[in-house]
Design brief:
The chain has a six-stranded antiparallel sheet, with helices on one face. It is globular and about 40 Å long. Strand 4 and strand 5 form a beta hairpin. It is of the alpha+beta class.
Length: about 110
């Protein structure tokens, strides 16, 4: 049984990322990366990496492995938001210690 999810992010590149656009493109165009994250492109003035998925095969290990490859090029505090078919919410947040997976809840007041 598969689990459907949506993933989206507009990640700001740090100084090292802006200086290594070619390396980032090699990473995001690799078959291994595309297996985990469906769409990835550099936008803006080569300062933003946009990611998105809308798949019914969720593999968090592969997603995290792909994000780890980009860690040195992304500003701290950036996040990748996810939403599951059961309306669950979670994100991957880039911290000083690496990518942290957090569950979320929407609260209306």
């Amino acid at each position: 049984m598969s689990y459907c999810h949506n993933l989206s992010a507009a990640l700001s590149l740090n100084k090292k990322g802006k200086q290594n656009i070619k390396k980032i493109k090699e990473i995001i165009n690799s078959e291994e990366f595309r297996y985990a994250i469906e769409k990835a492109e550099i936008s803006g003035d080569n300062d933003t990496l946009e990611l998105s998925n809308s798949w019914c095969n969720y593999h968090d290990e592969e997603i995290i492995a792909s994000l780890i490859k980009l860690t040195n090029f992304i500003k701290l505090g950036e996040e990748v938001e996810c939403r599951g078919e059961d309306d669950s919410h979670w994100r991957f947040l880039l911290t000083i210690n690496g990518w942290l997976e957090q569950e979320g809840h929407i609260v209306y007041e």
